[in-house]
Amino acid sequence: MQIAITRQVSLAIAACELTYLERMEIDYALACRQHQQYCDALAGMGCQVLSLPPLADLPDSVFVEDVTLALDEAAILTRPGAASRRPEVEHIRPVLAEYRTLLSIQAPGTLEGGDILRLGKILYVGLSGRSSPDGIAQLAGLTAPFGYTVQGVPLTGCLHLKSAVTQAAPDLLLINPGWVSPAYFEGFRLLEVDPAEPHAANVLLLDGGAVYPSSFPRTLLRLEQSGIPVTPVDVSEIQKAEGAVTCCSLILKS
Q1: pLDDT single digits (tens) 20-29
Q2: N or C: which end of the chain has fewer CB within 10 A?
């Protein structure tokens, strides 16, 4: 059983942190409907969805993945690089404590879950503006007792590592080679996004298939042609907040 922890959209989402996107008007009601459809897709693919209430004073709190790395052995509470997001950690702490032993990244280190791509026992971490070398070193120390190794990965032109590469199948990664070098991922088959869709490298792999934004039809076709069962979802309003399908849920195996 996979448990998907989600959080409803904050009424303040229009005040979200933005780094690489220009600020656009976000239709709050539509964002809420799209988020519910996203949760329905997770449930339809076999996840037990735990929907947490919205946090009116934390605009980015819908992006629950950024405040935690959930491993089978423990959960690491992160310390977001964006100071406005750090209060989100205390809101997720009691929820995760029901499922995992909790470990924490400490100041002055910073780390965001969107920068962490777990492939087996290797944790690839984006060297981004949100995750610092100190935070990455702390992650290595916390996870080494469980047999994990940590590999820092340079990025260009994107917010998080999982903006540039995600796992689409057990042996296949979806990647934008303009934002991250494929050389870091030897041993995996690589599927490049369509050049016309640079933001299309984010796919959420679940036991029941993959969830993927419907706004990238060319790359969606590439995934389908690769034999990957895809459930398309419209998350266009959430994408305006520099969000994606992986960051809207925290997936745990029960």
Answers
A1: 999 999 999 9
A2: C
Which tokens go with 131? 């995750």
Task: Name the one residue in this structure whose structure tokens are 């929820």.
Answer: 95
Q: How far is CA 166 from the centre of its chain?
A: 9
User: Rg of the chain's alpha carbons, rounded to an integer?
Assistant: 17
The domains of the chain are located at 2-253
Name the E strands within 86-194: 102-104, 116-119, 122-127, 149-154, 165-169, 172-175, 189-192
Token pair 């280190």 in the structure block, residue = 109
Domain 2-253 coded CATH 3.75.10.10:
yes
Q: Is-catalytic flag, 16?
A: no
If 0-12 CB within 10 Å is exposed, 13-18 middle and 19+ buried, where does residue 10 land? Answer: buried
SS3 199: coil
The pLDDT tens digits for 73-98 are: 999 999 999 999 999 999 999 999 99
How many CB atoms sit inside 10 A of residue 145's CB?
A: 10
In this structure, what token pair is assigned to residue 3? 């448990």
Q: Residues 16, 32, 158, 247: which is the catalytic one?
A: 247
Which of these, 71, 16, 65, 53, lies nearest to 204 by C-alpha position?
Answer: 65
Predicted confidence (pLDDT) per residue in 193-248, tens digit: 999 999 999 999 999 899 999 999 999 999 999 999 999 999 999 999 999 999 99
- What is this structure's pTM? 0.97
Is 247 known to be catalytic?
Answer: yes
